[in-house]
Design a protein that fits this description.
By secondary structure, the chain is mostly helical. The chain has 12 helices and no strands. Helix 5 packs across helix 6 (121-133). The termini are far apart.
């Protein structure tokens, strides 16, 4: 990373000037050099992160206005800062992949999500969904395991993991995932409800997670409304009989 190289350069220059030119004790010059290294590195890191935060805010405004392509271009412009700071590239790739996934450009999204940041739990969840749709169950599980290790307390991530496991016919593993999630999220009600449903041999209910759930394109609000309408019509028929 360039930030490290620049900080190291300044610290070495300071140490040489203090030691060789000013004749300062090597121990003192070494301590000063370390301080200079830390200060320069932190200043550069703050500068870069401020720039990235600004780009993220701009991209967010574009997303809210549904200017998808413009938001992606804004984020791509941030790649010039990638050589300066750790994980910048992975964070931007994850964010771009998420936008493409939301647009249903799944093939292109997959390429970005594979290079995404492991702590971006939504991007990791979308990547796992991509693997599931490609019938790569082992990679799906591996991705979810990485995601839940990095982000342990996100209920929707655990629920998504269980939902996908159940969808590929691994109900016992889905139950195990929810039980693990409950331990991490301190008995989250929505996870407990879905755990009970799976144990009863029923399908999970994800609508309580709201709009975030629908962003994974595994279920649409329209589908849920149709299911509810059908259930109501069924109850009416029973009453009439």
């Amino acid at each position: 990373m360039l930030s490290l190289a620049v900080a190291l350069f300044f610290s070495l220059v300071v140490q040489l000037l203090l030691g060789l030119v000013a004749g300062v004790n090597p121990w003192i010059s070494g301590i000063v050099a370390v301080v200079v290294f830390g200060v320069v590195f932190l200043l550069l890191a703050r500068f870069v992160m401020k720039k990235i935060s600004g780009l993220m805010e701009t991209a967010q405004r574009d997303l809210q206005a549904q200017r998808w392509d413009k938001a992606i271009k804004v984020l791509e412009s941030g790649m010039r800062y990638a050589p300066w700071q750790f994980y910048i590239k992975a964070q931007l790739k994850a964010q771009i992949g998420t936008i493409l996934f939301l647009k249903r450009d799944f093939a292109e999204a997959f390429e970005y999500l594979q290079q995404g940041f492991v702590r971006h739990w939504m991007a990791m969840g979308m990547l796992a969904v991509c693997y599931m749709k490609r019938n790569k169950s082992a990679k799906m599980i591996e991705t979810f395991e990485k995601a839940t290790t990095a982000t342990k307390k996100e209920p929707l991530l655990w629920a998504l993991y269980a939902y996908c496991l159940d969808k590929i016919g691994e109900r016992s593993k889905a139950i195990d995932a929810l039980q693990r999630g409950l331990k991490r999220t301190k008995d989250e009600d929505r996870l407990q409800e879905n755990l009970d449903l799976l144990k009863e041999g029923k399908r999970m209910k994800m609508k309580d997670f709201g709009d975030l759930w629908f962003q994974f394109h595994l279920e649409s609000p329209g589908t849920i409304i149709k299911q509810q309408t059908k259930a109501i019509q069924g109850r009416r028929k029973i009453v009439r009989q």
